[in-house]
Write a structure and sequence with these properties.
By secondary structure, the protein is α+β, with helices and mostly antiparallel strands. The chain is 39% helix and 21% strand. It contains seven helices and ten strands.
Amino acid sequence: MKTSTIDHLKFPSGRTVLRCKDDAKKLRKASKNTDNYLSYSKALDVIAQNNGIEQPWDKALSQLTKNQESAQNEPSLFDWLKGQVKNQQSHYKKLVHQNFEYNNELYIPNGEGDYSKAYQHKKHPDGLLITQEVAQIVEADIIKLGGLDKLSKLHDGLIQIIYEKPGSTSHLAHEFHVTKDGVIVYYCRSLPWLGYKAEFHARNYELTRVGISKGHVDSFLHWTGFCLWHKILTPRVA
């Protein structure tokens, strides 16, 4: 079956069109035996809104396509925006080092009143600020899933590894993005999707919250929670 040419496009939430289609199927299935049954098309509309575009699914896809075309047609503007983001990240990195550096090493809150040693993955400029334990878990799972060479051919060089509890319909998940060179560059922890509250995104040293819930981030990247959850989560490649 031919893969859609827009499945890789991302909603404002960071989720791809392909992932959102899967979310809609799960949402439709979960609503089957309730008073609020949703058809697949209606579920897609809900998913589009939950992921940051207040329009029906078809119009949301049109907007994503236009956004892609605009980025391609205005490379100078796109490059300027990338420069702005890099400047912001550079500033944020300095603040992180000021707050968490000790003897030229970084120690980040682990959410349990203590600190964990962290480093920039593979010492790459785009590498995620991560703990050694989490890096070893993800790297080992990449090997179990077939290795970098095999996985990088599936999504134009960017590997998305999703960790979900087997058989779960709540969509509690941890998501990592890995480059074809094996650098972990992105992390997202989703709360149960049907009761969607927020997602926590981490890019480099930056932590951004999206969604509609008001909450407190009591740990920098939730690495402690991921290590505990990993024992009952099954990784899959999206």
